[in-house]
Structure formats: C-alpha cells, structure tokens
Amino acid sequence: MKIALVSFFISDNLGDLAISSAIVDMLKNKDKNIEIYKYDFSKVMSINQEKGREDRASKKSINKSSMMFFEKLICKIKSKVNQWGLSLNWRRLKNDLKDSDMMIIGGGNMIMDLVPGWPILFARFCKIANSTNTPYHIIYVGVGPINNKKSELIYKRAFETAEYVSVRGPLSKNNAKNFSNNIIETIDPVFGLELDLLNHRIKQITSQKSKTINVGVCVLGKVCFKTTEEHLLYLERVMEIIIKTQEALNKHLMIHVFSTDHKDYDAVNEISGNLSEIKTTHNLITHEISNIHEMSDLIEFYKKLDFLIGGRMHSLIFSQMCLLPYIGIEWQEKLVEFSKITSNEKSIYSFENFNSDNINLISNVINNISNIDKTRKMNSKNLQLKKIVDNGMSVKMDIH
C-alpha cells in the first residue's frame, strides 16, 4: 500500500517531530510493506528533497550605500526561486497522490489561523487530493485557536470531504464542533509508543546508591508567556524551586537544563547563567546544558533522570511515557487536558501556585523521586492511553 503523509517533518519543535514519527511507526506497524511519501506541511516539501532550498539565494552582506539596487534584485530573484520551487512541490505532490491509495494529513497544531496562511495551505492539500480522486484522512490534529470566520469556513469544507477525522483532546474537538459531526476524539499519538521502561525505572530506583539526584529542567521561552515581566518571574521561580528542592533533600543536585523547542534556548542559557552565579553559595547544585535533537535522544536522556521540572507539553508527555516523575506549569490550556488524561492533576500547577513557597509542590518533588508505587501507576496509565491512541487511527482506516 502507498500513502502520502503530510505532517511536520521539518521543525525546531521536538513535539511536532515526535507526533510525525509516531504516526509513521503506527502505519508501519499496520503494514510492514507500506510505502510512505512524506511531505512537510508548512514547507510543502517532500522530505527526500534537498533541505534548505529556500535559502539558496545569496546571504552575503552587501554595502548598503552603493548596492541597494542589487539587494532589491536579489530579493526579487529569491522570491521567484521560492515561487518556482513551491510550484514544483505541488506538482510533485499531485504526481505522488496519483500513485497513492490515500493521503493522510495530521500532527502538530495544524488547524489554526495564528499563522494566517495555514487554513488556505491545509485546504490546498485537501483540494489536490480531491482532484486526483485520492481519499484523505485527517488524524491526530490539534485544533485552535481559530479567530477568523473565513478560516472556519475553509476548514469546514476540508473536513466535510475527508474520509475520517480524529482530533487530539476535548479542547480540539470543541474547537472543531462546527466542522463535522463525525469527529473522533483521541489523544496525542506519542502516548502510543511502546517503550517498556518499567523494569529499568524500578531497577534505577532500587539500586540508587549515589547521593546525586539528576533533575531535568525543561525551560519555557519568552514566547510562552504574555509579557516579558511574567517570563522573568517564571525564571525566578524555577531557580527558587531548584534551590528549595536541594535544601529539602540535602543532596547534590545535578541540573540538566534543556528544552524540546530550540526557540527556548535563550531562556535555557539564562537559567544556566543563573545557576553558575549561585555556585559559591549553593555548591551542592551543579548543572549542564543538554541539547536534544531527536526523539531517541530525549528518551535516552530521560532514562538517566530522577525527576523533571517541565516544560513544554511534549517534555511532560515523554516524562509520562518514560515513567519519570514530574511537575509542570499550566502555561496553556492543553496542559490542563494533559493532567486529566494522565490522572496527574496534582503535578500541574497554575502560574500562581508554581513557586517555592508552595509546600505541596516541593513535597510532590521530594516524595515522588524514588516512589516505585508511583512508577507502577504511571505504567498502568500508559497501557490505558495506548488503547485510546489506537482508536484515533483504526476506524475506517482499512490498511492491509
């Protein structure tokens, strides 16, 4: 069987890449001989094509005082090259669809209009599938926010001609309620990964002789907050939680600072700088910056941690999947959904309660670092979640 899969394959956000990878794995598990044509949604690019083609135009600096004409000329040429390349990509997709049994489009927070061109882009993928008589399925998409009535109409038309639609979570289903009456509510496909880490985690807990506790800190960037002041306050609170945790445990903390989105690394560097400044007064706190590029890197990284302070949504989803205890901050509404899905509402804190003065928060960290019962409960929940994930693809998806 041949499938054209449109998702986020080129991204600085590890969560987007993880969802796309999970969808690919699920398709291959259904049919070992399946052939998949992969297309990146936002770039409209086959991922087998040369990456970075959009940057081929010269980037060399030009003397502004004497070369303004050439700067404008280069911009025009670059624009024409991009338009020509995009046109070729659409033609390539159309040819691949003629050779495909179906198109699958999904993953990421694809159905929204914060990026103004996305509704039209999504609709064009669906229109080309219709023009080649290729049935298409919309799966595991995040929906919203959608602020424009015209965007709603565009998405509604695309949903109406889809063979099957599944969305991630009740918030997405509510946002898509006017698009179709036949939408399946599912959860993030990353919850469907089969990691089988229960024995590893129990062995790690029971054989822990070291006085060092490894704590991952997934730092949120400024883009995640409404104001710069709010972000700065968040960074202060992260530092305070680290210090208060170390004092309560009275052990050496090795802090691994990172993010699952490269846009956050300015904030990662800021926390790193703050940790360096407190070395003299808190010598039992050391740290390093961890650069995570692949999903497999993140899993191996989490396997050596004892606790996580999150973080982006997928930093927490992978923490759940790796049976790594965690706390997180409710910086967007879907974190509330996540806490309910995982039955872990007490580990996700509002901005007001995400601080070192919250005794419950610090107790949560201390009590769950070496808690085997907590680990077993997380594993049982993961088995339940996998069944829900499977429902997001199986209905009407006759792959054999």
- Global shape: elongated
Q: Average pLDDT, to the nearest integer?
A: 88
- Specify the biggest β-sheet: 7 strands, mixed
Number of domains: 2
User: pLDDT under 50 segments (min length 5)?
Assistant: 49-67, 76-85
Name of the CATH class of the largest domain: Alpha Beta
Q: Strand fraction band?
A: 15-25%
Helix/strand/pairing category: alpha/beta
**What is the CA-CA span between the terminal residues?**
7 Å
What is the string of SSEs from the N terminus onward?
EHEEHEHEHEHEHEHEHEHEHEHEHH
Assign a percent range to the helix content.
40-55%
Give the number of helices: 13
- Strand order in space, largest sheet: 3-2-1-4-5-6-7
Beta-strand segment tally = 13
CATH architecture of the largest domain: 3-Layer(aba) Sandwich
